[in-house]
Design brief:
The complex is a heterotrimer of chains A (about 300), B (about 550) and C (about 325). With about 550 residues, chain B is of the alpha/beta class. Helices cover about 40% and strands about 25% of the residues of chain B. Mean pLDDT of chain B is about 90; it is low at about 540-545. The chains are: A mainly alpha (about 300), B alpha/beta (about 550), C mainly alpha (about 325). Chains in contact: A-B, A-C, B-C.
Chain lengths: ~300, ~550, ~325
């Protein structure tokens, strides 16, 4: 019971700190940004500004990992499972590597790979989705039916199946997840574009004799951008979670690369002994996903609010 | 009528709406009194605050609005001070509401009779069985077909005019003291409108119900209301009883509303023997296996306006799609200056595309919201005429001046920064930028207020003379036809019922459908509806109206 | 035949076709496997002669479609082949585990579905209140958590030293129903937490989307209470999206079990699949993927049919 109450206190404290950070960040951004951005920022809820702050921090850590980490990614610096100390701030892992350093390097590895994967999925899915909506006819039929079938197999199961066939490697994982996720992007991009294609201004542009390229870049894309950007955020979260899950299952990133998912797996035994260290990499995953989701939620809310 | 006791009073009513994080006043101190059994017409253009005032009579403000000042007394109850529970008790039971679109205001998931009974049963007025019997009785009074069984249908199984009558019956369910009618016939075709108006007037008289009748259509309100209040931008312009208002409006604004109906452009004499700019020759077209158009033919000459008139589903917009090449016809062809056009727009040359332009009904969806006027108007000139840089900018400015917008202030605006009428003007400028011979105007004024619409019509007229344009004007509104047409094509269910010069069209003898259409247009005479119904009862025209 | 029946039959036919195509994709998976299937079974030390003999025996020399036909016929008869890893029959390997996995998913669904619907409706009713905001933010947060994070937090809080629940759901032999509920509580709770948030958010959104409709305003103007407006007027029209999101999440439960089973060492199909993927034991992976995919297709199909039936426009034609 006492443990539960302390936990609750920690949780509330954490939320209060997060909100305070969000508020400070928003105030800062409102003062230093140009007028247009500042106006947008003012409408951001605390959750969203906290999210933006966290995303910036993750990007910073990922870029400057080699400066920030006290030890190298793979060096064995002590015995296994050493507790937190002044040398190894967060202790050591199951092979005696510095936990903090691996956490920091993993930001680069995990986030970087998730970003590349979702970018691939996004480009593939949205280009095909837009084309299907505009060109229509047989192209739309072929693409949509293919996507229907691919989506009839649950994502994680499909990924596992393909990885069995291709063998587990980082490149294979990127390609497999990008392919599977592009089907989801395709669906959304096509639906969004379909709503725009029926607009009179697109009809007017077609009747004017505009070519396909200009139709996409000048008429449709500018109007599809808001939902597509939000989708990119959601896709990133999904890809990031899938990669972490695969790594956790031992089928994603391969050792000795530092990666949050496999770090949880490797050190999980500590949890049953009441040591929270293995929760840190899992928490790092959760925090980034929450942050992205908060920002996306704000953007979606704004987009739907303007419609009314 | 003997003076009856006062049912509703509003004093200094103020209502605010939220826009961009700010509260803006949309009703600015309106007073209103209504006696039992009396019908008050609220009339004004969009943004006048008519619906908002109507809802306030129920103590209700839409989400994002709030009643910020004044007093609303309904039968001695202060609606602003009353608890939400008390207000809910009154709504539906003593004050009822009839919405503009019955099709959207009936819940698609429940049968009509379930929705009818909900009010009386929930308010504890009648038991379910009694309410059902009562529903059938009222359905009969509203002259709905098969009153015993129609209630057991779902809303989508009933036509628009019938739904509107069913909604009025539903409003009557608890025998309220007051009904708010919010543009109940605006979404209907003219021929359907008559029946609904007649049914509403009949039942309101029968139960001696007081009503607030909200509309933008003067001729309609003249049939329904005992007295009329004219509103402009949330303020009262004037109020008086219907007959004296129609005979002698005291305010300039009211007079200007009247004046719109008298606008007519000078008719263009036909040029004998000239090749028509556009000829539609024996066109049959449709979607899937259904023919929407059946053997349509007509010609459009330079400097002349052909009005294509018909109710919803008559095929007038499909005709436009065939001419523009979006829908290649199954049979027949389109001639342009005597030469056949390729049926599919993708096979037409740049010059053929340039020569025929289109202006759309909804300027909101016709202008890309992410493009500035510079690009919206400039693109056709750049594409067809190869203008660039300074020349292009000069041309855009010239076009803006033509549509009576000041170039410097507008050239870099987005469509969202324009009013409805201005957007429609941009649609016109975009069509002009291609320097066409022929423009299709698809219901270009029906989404606009009368005064704004008149401005657009005058502008189109001026441009026609200046550039020798041929217009095809698609509309359902006969007043617009009277104002602008040289020739009229009347369509019904994909067939041309009658066509000819305007002067002939508006003179008897008519085709029976044209006759019905013409006679259904409300006139600015309080006795028009009664007279028409009496006439139709004799000739039996009304029988065919619903079919 | 009434049009609605034709529509449902069409959906069912489409479902069968989808299953068929899915089985084809899964079968082709084996074909794409680099290297020789027979070699894989026998290992590197096998002589070419034995490999050739096994190829003949497995029918690997037959044309592709013949082998697919044979495989499909076997699958339909319940013969799922033999594991490469230990030579056991795949059907036997899966047997019990399938039941365990399904009961875990069912356990979680039984808690999650009613809970999320009630929370979603409440959030829609009390929209923009503190309850709504907190529910919304916590839902967003829990959607963002990886399953293993939720699982380990629960272990940390509820199992661990002197905890109330076992951190390892060892279920062997016959266990009583109550004992099962107790042992599988943490995995079921993890799954519940993961799917409830999404279903709740979507239920709320589906209802709130409708609140601007004229018929909702009409219901309010008829003097109906907020609760009645939501439950009687908005909910029936929001059924289709809600059914779809429930199906989506039930389907997600089926795949979500993979990670959760690994964390709690729960003896289900997910465990089996992960082990087999690591060992590249193709017949087992094939069979498990096929079962998961079939369940997924069936769920979506059911949702599709139910959503169709919830739409009066489709059920009662003009």
């Amino acid at each position: 019971m006492i443990g539960f109450l302390t936990g609750l206190l920690w949780l509330l404290g954490g939320i209060a700190a997060a909100m305070a950070a969000g508020w400070l960040f928003r105030t800062l951004m409102v003062t230093i940004s140009p007028r247009g951005v500042a106006k947008e920022m003012r409408t951001a809820p605390l959750t969203a500004s906290f999210g933006m702050l966290m995303i910036l921090i993750y990007i910073f850590v990922a870029f400057f990992a080699h400066w920030l980490a006290p030890f190298s990614e793979t060096a064995i610096v002590g015995r296994e499972y050493e507790p937190w100390s002044s040398v190894n701030l967060l202790g050591t892992d199951n092979l005696g590597r510095d936990m903090l350093s691996r956490l920091i390097y993993a930001a680069r590895n995990t986030v970087g790979i998730a970003f590349v994967t979702s970018a691939l999925a996004f480009i593939l899915g949205s280009v095909l989705g837009l084309l299907a909506a505009i060109v229509g006819g047989w192209l739309d039929q072929i693409l949509s039916r293919t996507v229907d079938v691919l989506m009839a197999i649950p994502a994680l199961i499909f990924a596992l199946l393909l990885l069995t066939i291709l063998g587990t490697s980082v490149i294979n994982m990127i390609l497999v997840i990008a392919l599977i996720d592009s089907t989801r992007v395709y669906r959304l991009a096509r639906a969004v574009a379909m709503n725009i294609v029926v607009m009179d201004y697109v009809e007017a542009a077609k009747l004017r004799g505009e070519g396909l390229w200009r139709l996409i870049t000048r008429e449709i894309l500018p109007n599809a951008m808001a939902p597509l950007v939000a989708e990119f955020g959601l896709r990133f979260c999904f890809v990031f979670l899938t990669i972490s899950a695969l790594s956790f299952l031992g089928l994603g990133m391969q050792p000795p690369t530092a990666d949050w998912g496999s770090m949880v797996k490797d050190n999980a035994t500590l949890i049953t002994f009441g040591d929270i260290t293995p929760l840190l990499p899992a928490g790092a995953i959760a925090l980034l996903t929450v942050s992205v989701n908060f920002v996306v939620d704000w953007q979606l809310h704004r987009a739907s609010g303007l419609k009314e | 009528m003997a003076e009856q006791e006062i049912l509703l009073t509003m004093k200094g009513l103020r209502i605010e709406g939220r826009a961009d994080e700010e509260w803006i006043e949309i009703v600015k101190g309106v007073d209103l009194t209504l006696r039992r059994g009396e019908v008050l017409g609220l009339i004004g253009e969009s943004g006048a605050g008519k619906s908002t005032i109507g809802l306030a009579a129920m103590g209700f403000a839409r989400d994002g609005c709030r009643i910020s000042g004044g007093e609303i007394l309904f039968d001695g109850i202060d609606l602003r001070r009353a608890s939400e529970t008390l207000r809910r008790e009154l709504r539906g039971k003593r004050i009822a509401y009839v919405a503009q679109s019955a099709a959207a205001s009936f819940n698609p998931s429940h049968k009509l009779i379930d929705q009818y009974c909900e009010g009386p049963v929930e308010h504890g007025v009648m038991a379910r069985g009694v309410a059902e019997k009562d529903a059938m009785e009222l359905y009969r009074k509203m002259q709905l077909p098969e009153p015993e069984t129609i209630g057991f249908r779902y809303p989508h199984q009933v036509s628009g005019g019938q739904l509107q009558r069913a909604m009025t019956a539903m409003a009557m369910a608890c025998r309220p003291d007051l009904i708010i009618f919010d543009e109940p016939t605006t979404a209907l075709d003219v021929t359907t409108q008559i029946e609904v108006l007649a049914a509403i007037r009949n039942i309101v008289e029968q139960f001696n119900t007081a009503a607030i009748y909200i509309t933008h259509d003067l001729a309609v309100v003249a049939q329904m209301a005992d007295k009329i209040k004219v509103l402009l931008k949330g303020e009262e312009v004037e109020e008086s009883d219907t007959r004296s208002m129609l005979a002698a409006p005291s305010q300039d604004y009211t007079r200007s509303l009247w004046a719109v109906r008298t606008y007519a452009r000078a008719e263009q004499a036909p040029v004998a023997g000239a090749t028509p700019v556009v000829s539609v020759r024996g066109v049959t077209a449709g979607y899937g296996t259904i023919d929407v158009l059946k053997n349509i033919s007509f010609d459009i000459h330079a400097r002349r306006t052909v009005a294509v008139v018909g109710e919803s589903g008559s095929g007038k917009s499909t005709t436009a799609r065939v001419i523009t090449g979006l829908l290649p016809p199954r049979q027949g062809e389109i001639l342009f200056n005597g030469k056949p056009l390729p049926p599919d727009y993708r096979r037409r040359s740049k010059d053929q595309l340039r020569q025929a332009q289109m202006i759309y009904q909804m300027a909101d969806t016709a202008l890309n919201p992410k493009q500035r006027l510079r690009e919206l108007i400039g693109r056709p000139a750049q594409m067809y005429l190869g203008l660039n840089g300074k020349k292009l900018e000069d041309r855009v400015k010239e076009l803006l001046r033509l549509i009576e917008l000041e170039p410097a202030g507008y050239i870099d605006r987005l469509p969202s920064e324009l009013s409805g009428g201005q957007k429609q003007r941009i649609g016109i400028a975009r069509a002009l930028a291609a320097e066409p011979q022929f423009i299709i105007c698809d219901e270009v004024t029906s989404a606009l207020d009368q005064l704004v619409a008149e401005g657009i019509l005058k502008l189109l007229d001026k441009l026609q003379t200046e550039f020798q344009l041929a217009y095809m004007f698609i509309t359902h509104d006969l007043a617009t036809v009277k104002a602008i047409a040289d020739e009229v094509v009347v369509m019904k269910e994909g067939v041309v019922v009658e066509q000819g010069p305007k002067a002939e069209m508006f003179q008897p003898p008519h085709d029976p459908y044209t006759e019905l259409l013409l006679s259904s247009v409300p006139e600015m005479d309080p006795d028009w509806l009664s007279r028409l119904l009496a006439e139709r009862a004799v000739t039996g025209v009304a029988e065919s109206a619903g079919n | 035949m009434p049009p609605i029946l034709i529509m449902i039959l069409q959906r069912l036919a489409l479902g069968v076709v989808t299953l068929f195509v899915v089985s084809l994709i899964i079968f082709l998976g084996t074909e794409l496997l680099p290297g020789d299937f027979a070699q894989e079974i026998l290992g590197q030390s096998a002589t070419p002669a034995t490999v050739a003999a096994l190829r003949e025996q497995l029918g690997l020399n037959d044309p592709l479609f013949v082998r697919y036909g044979g495989w499909l016929a076997d699958v339909v008869r319940g013969d799922l082949g033999v594991s490469l890893a230990n030579g056991q029959s795949v059907a036997e390997l899966i047997g019990r585990r399938l039941g365990y996995t399904l009961s875990l998913a069912l356990y979680a669904a039984a808690i999650a579905v009613p809970l999320s619907l009630v929370l979603g409706i409440l959030a829609a009713l009390l929209r923009n209140s503190v309850f709504d905001r907190v529910a919304n933010a916590s839902a967003l947060t829990s959607i963002s958590f990886p399953e293993f994070f939720v699982a380990y937090i629960l272990i940390f809080l509820l199992a661990g030293a002197g905890g109330m629940f076992p951190s390892i759901s060892s279920i062997r032999g016959e266990v009583s129903f109550g004992e099962y509920l107790y042992r599988a509580f943490l995995p079921a709770l993890t799954l519940t937490l993961v799917v409830t948030a999404h279903m709740m958010r979507m239920t709320r959104a589906a209802i709130i989307n409708l609140l601007a409709s004229p018929y909702i305003e009409m219901a309010r103007l008829k003097g109906m209470s907020p609760m009645r407006v939501i439950v009687r007027h908005a909910l029936p029209n929001a059924l289709a999206p809600i059914i779809n999101v429930v199906a989506l999440n039930l389907a997600y439960l089926i795949t979500g079990v993979v990670v959760v089973e690994v964390v709690f060492v729960y003896p289900g199909m997910g465990q089996l699949m992960v082990d087999s993927v690591a060992a590249r034991d193709m017949p087992v992976v094939q069979a498990v993927a096929l079962i998961f995919a079939a369940a997924y297709v069936l769920l979506n199909l059911t949702a599709d049919v139910l959503a169709t039936l919830s739409n009066p426009r489709l059920v009662h034609r003009r």
